[in-house]
Amino acid sequence: MAPGCPGHGSPSPRPAPARPVGQLATHLDEFTFLWNRHPVRTCRSGVKHLHHPTAGPIGLTFETLALPTPSGHRLITYTAEPGST
Fold it and tell me: How far is it, in rounded angstroms, from Cα 84 to Cα 69?
C-alpha cells in the first residue's frame, strides 16, 4: 500500500492504536513530532512502488473509487503502463 493510505478489504477487528501511540508519545519527543505532522487521509490515486524479488522494481498506478452503498466499500484498480517492468 502507498504510504499514508489505509488498507483495503473487509474491516477486521483490530486493537485500537491509541494506547501504543499514547505510550510512545509520552516517552519520545521525536515520535510525537513525527506523528503530529503525518497526514492521515484516503489516497484516491497515485503510484504504488513495489519491489518484486524476480521482476525487480514495479510502479503501479492506482485509483480508488467509492461505491455508492452504505457499506463503505471501495474499489481499487491498479494498472501498469504498457512495456513497463
Answer: 35
